[in-house]
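[scheduler] slot 2 assigned
[scheduler] job type: sequence-to-structure, two independent chains
[scheduler] chain ordering preserved from manifest
[runner] begin chain α
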Amino acid sequence: MSGSMRALVKHHAGFGAELREVPIPVPGPDEVLIKVRATTICGTDVHIYRWDDWASARVKPPMVFGHEFSGEVVEVGAGVKHLSVGDHVSAETHIVCGHCPQCRRGEAHVCANTEIIGVHRTGCFAEYAVMPADNLWKNKKELPPEVASAMEPMGNAVHTALSGPIAGKSVAVIGCGPIGVMAVAVAKAAGASRVIALDLNEYRLDLARKMGADVQIHSGKQDPVRETEKWTEGRGVDVVLEMSGNATAIRQGFSMLTAGGRISMLGLPTGPVELDVSNEIVMKGIQVHGIVGRRMYETWQQTAAFLESGQVDLEPMITHRFSLEEFEKGFEQMMSGHSGKVVLYP
């Protein structure tokens, strides 16, 4: 396919982005061309839009950005055998090398040579996108495109929640952004006995309630550690899912965790975090899991199963929908803190 398409471009090293006409990308032998049906805005995209230190250290404008999307295959490379024109797909956005020690031992999610679309290479805020065929997950055609797009961040929630036993356990989810509220739903679907959601944002706490949280704690108005003790008969929670990256919240997460418990950490602090390692980690005998991306492709199988079975419904956390031309409204909504997942439709 030749011609041009509309795409959202990070056009300069500064705030904002531009909608431009750019060439439709051409797939290589092991790639496919996808007509994008829906994209969702991630916190990473907001970093790039704002152009903060994180973005300036990684992104080289001008570049089409965005990394969460779903769409329909419209062209396949000569070497692609498992996908066909007309298939509906979502994308694993981490493109890995396949030959480093991590990849070879089945841990491609921590590949030493990972590239992320929309960060290190051309992204998906566009009418069309090219992806390696091996990075695509085939969906049932009845799955709504915005839900299919959100499978990528939901995979982060699934990976975080299911990185250890969760059935019958009390779970605290710290940070109720979109991935946090999806983790709430996953924990409930996986059999958690009680899910406690913690945040400083009333809007997001209400989203957590809609997604199944049994308890909502406003960490600015209540003492999170004391409140979780009340709901666990003084024992502390069995599992902490740390999604905020806030240094104070991280310390509170370690404090509220019961001895022998597990904390899985997805949130990214902006700097070093001071912890009482002796008392909060070693003497409590806890497990600390660092979470990056999704396990390829175990997490995708779990995510698809949660959605297809109806055990997890993402509709309550998909709160705003805009056309690609209305991207400024979409980013403003994300930056306001009063949104769940924001969708852009090319």
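[runner] end chain α
[runner] begin chain β
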Amino acid sequence: MARVVCLVVLLSESETWAGGLSLYEIATADVGLASAGWAARAQDPATLLKNPAGMSRLTGNQFQAGAQLLQAGIGFSPSAGTTVDGNSGGNPVGVLPSMSLFYVHGLGEDVKVGLGVFSNFGLGMSYNSGWVGRYYAQENTLIGISIMPGLSYRINDKFSIGAAANVMIGYLNYSAAVNNRAFLNVPDGNMQMTDTTVGAGGNVGILFEPRTGTRFGVTYYSQIKLNFGATPTFTNLTGPLGTALQNNGLLNRTLDLGMTVPQSVMVSSYHEFTDRWAMMLDFGWQDWSQFGKVDVGVTGGNATPSLTTAINYQDTFHVALGNRYRLAEAWLLNSGFAWDSSMLKDQDRTVTLPIGQQFRFGLGAEWQANPKLNVAFSYELAYGGDLPVNQNRGPLAGAVVGQFPGTYINFFQVSFIWGKGAGAA
């Protein structure tokens, strides 16, 4: 009877989408720059992630800690064509805290090692009970937490190289309602899956500094396989539906929910026009067509049972422009704009993954409190606009038609850098 389709998505203890689910906002001053200069700025320990080659140009040993608060507005508005009774689901994201930690240690004048702990992959959603899309998703959490060691070597005054490993701990939790009422006038059942896995990848980078104050950086990120697999747990199944699921072997079937954190490339530049003003540019690509996420849930009709449905994803592209202006000896003002294309076309968007193109606007300030302490305060608005949805996967899940209107996420960030030479140079 049932075909299963509707799952994964997603929370990170951190943040929001870039072009997909990989995030630029890692609780550092880059939030105020909308990520501009990502692979070329090389001015804080978080360069371990952004371009590990940049660690070699940091002075001494430096530790960076950042905290961030995310506030999102991603509510759904159903419209004519929706066949399921229910409410709009509320705001499934709300407010989330996050943090990041980075440390860079010198092994000599030209060799640096680093270690980072952060989360920059995922998203999480939890809808109100009784919402119109409950047969597609009720709660969806995907978290990727990375532990990243890295090494950087400065070849000469102009060239540096670096590499880092990314050990990602992945956590997946999903639940959806089951439509008992398709057969009997009884309350909904429930389907839930949980799994934890570990994947590994890495990033390599090159930093070219033809002269003081001008840098070009390139970073390549490998893909990371997260081999999730889980057997759904069903509760409150009633009557013919439970029998049909049992007869088709769907109650005890392990689902292969493997997905790929995509490979990507970032190319960046940083140039100081004067001793007060610098400008940064980014161009990026992410291979989301290889993501592999499936949707899971009890859908379909009386005929061919199935457990998963693939979704068509497309590669995304990124551009960013940022400015840094020195207001006074101890104060820097950051600003930035970025655009990311969408990993989903409108016709492929699902209520479990309300993602589209992103426009990001950042503003921040850095305060050099003393030679060993730098403090950054940043704000970013990530605006996704209206995201239409039109899903129909059979009578058990019903048709869900509408849009996520005026989607946005606000980021509020503060970070600290301790160590000799801490802060932008």
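[runner] end chain β
[qc] chain β: The chain has two helices and 24 strands.
[scheduler] slot 2 released
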